[in-house]
């Protein structure tokens, strides 16, 4: 592996492991160069699925160069995302707050890791920076960011936003019946896939008809107030870049002064950029504006993934895909 100035040997090896797992379809969640519980669970799942601990793809070349484009630097950005739902509803969108946040999500990385990899970068148009060597994520929306041009495997297109408008639910948005559009990944038939979410391990696993694991990722699930609805359900449909129709009556910890409100779409929307609607009313699998907390925090009952993992899953499912929550 090449030496990375300013990055310790321990961080370099941790980064290489996380990149290799991500490329193998066993997501460690947000890549930060400091493997923790999510990385350990991804490695265990990889070993169980393959019978091996050997990871080659991406391990010897964990970073690649990327030139920040004018489109990246142009935004638009929202300087500050308010915590109050009523204040969120007044914004034109819940876009990224900076080019650093945008590039962090694009390359599945924490902004702090990008800063460590590029201590002298301004993250301005024309800067050539080091980024994790993963399939770039492009947030869907009315104005998709331009595709990368010089990072490895950087040709993924941005899926179109769903045409249906989701309704209010416990976790965020639901009742769409739109199909999932691919992002370049091979998509097995919906009936051949089973999604299993396990509360104990805070993981999501997708298996094909033969029982082989085709995707694994860390998740955030419900709390004591909003437990995971254990049982067997189905995917109803997928909505991309959804609005969040906030109903305070569905949240035990809502501000009593709040009223119903429509929260605009964007990567900092409460359900991120993707909602996978389940046949269990008010529940779904969705993205998040806080990728660093996936696997370590609690939700209002729904299942959260990083935005890039949620989009990856959405490209695999269709109405009727079986979902087991346990």
Name given to the CATH architecture of the domain at 167-325:
Beta Barrel
Uncertain runs with pLDDT below 50, 5 residues or more?
A: 143-186
Q: How many beta-strand elements?
A: 14
Instruction: Report the CATH topology name of the domain at 167-325.
Output: L,D-transpeptidase catalytic domain-like
In terms of DSSP E residues, the strand content is 15-25%
Query: Superfamily at the CATH H level of the domain at 167-325?
Result: L,D-transpeptidase catalytic domain-like
End-to-end Cα distance = 40 Å
Largest sheet, in brief, is: 8 strands, mixed
Structural class: alpha+beta
What's the helix-strand series?
HHEHHHHEEEEEEEEEEEEHE
With helices defined by DSSP (H or I, 4 residues minimum), what is the helix count?
Answer: 7
Portion of residues in helices?
10-25%
Radius of gyration: 19 Å
Strand order of the largest sheet: 7-6-5-14-8-11-12-13
> How confident is the prediction overall: mean pLDDT?
83
């Amino acid at each position: 592996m090449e030496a990375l100035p300013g990055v310790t040997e321990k961080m370099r090896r941790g980064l290489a492991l996380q990149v290799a797992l991500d490329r193998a379809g066993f997501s460690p969640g947000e890549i930060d160069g400091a493997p923790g519980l999510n990385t350990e669970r991804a490695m265990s799942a990889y070993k169980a699925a393959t019978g091996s601990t050997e990871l080659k793809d991406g391990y010897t070349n964990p970073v690649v160069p990327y030139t920040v484009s004018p489109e990246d630097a142009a935004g638009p950005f929202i300087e500050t995302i308010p915590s109050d739902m009523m204040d969120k509803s007044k914004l034109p969108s819940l876009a990224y707050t900076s080019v650093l946040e945008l590039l962090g999500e694009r390359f599945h990385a924490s902004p702090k890791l990008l800063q460590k990899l590029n201590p002298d970068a301004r993250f301005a148009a024309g800067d050539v920076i080091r980024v994790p060597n993963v399939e770039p994520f492009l947030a869907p929306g009315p104005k998709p960011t331009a595709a990368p041009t010089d990072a490895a495997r950087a040709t993924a297109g941005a899926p179109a936003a769903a045409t249906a408008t989701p309704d209010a639910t416990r976790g965020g948005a639901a009742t769409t019946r739109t199909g999932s559009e691919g992002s370049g990944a091979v998509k097995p038939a919906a009936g051949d896939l089973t999604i299993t979410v396990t509360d104990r391990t805070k993981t999501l696993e997708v298996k094909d008809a033969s029982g082989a694991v085709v995707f694994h990722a860390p998740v955030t699930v419900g709390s004591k107030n909003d437990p995971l609805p254990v049982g067997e359900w189905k995917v109803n449909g997928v909505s991309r870049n959804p609005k969040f129709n906030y109903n305070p009556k569905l949240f035990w910890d809502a501000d009593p002064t709040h009223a119903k409100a429509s929260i605009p779409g964007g990567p900092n929307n409460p359900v991120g950029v993707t909602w996978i609607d389940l046949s269990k009313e008010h529940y779904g699998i969705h993205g998040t504006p806080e990728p660093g907390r996936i696997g370590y925090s609690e939700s209002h009952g729904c299942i959260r993934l990083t935005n890039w993992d949620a989009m990856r899953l959405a490209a695999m499912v269709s109405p009727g895909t079986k979902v087991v929550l346990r």
